[in-house]
Amino acid sequence: MKRQWLGLIVVNAVISLLITLGVLWFAVNLGWIDSGTEPTPFVIVPSTATPGPTATATVPLTPTPTIAKGIYVVQLGDSLLAIAERLDVDPKILLKLNDIGDANHLVTGQELLVPLASLPTGTPTPTPTTAPSATPTLVDIPQPGPEVTLPVTTTASADIEAEAAITATLPVTGVHVVLLGVASPGDVQAEAVIIENQGGEAVQLRNWTLAHSNGPRYVFPPYMLVPGEAIWVHTRAGIDDIGDLHWARNTAVWSRGSAAILANMSGETMSELTINSEN
Question: Which of 61, 152, 180, 199 has a CA-to-CA distance to 54 between 20 and 30 Å?
Answer without folding.
Answer: 61
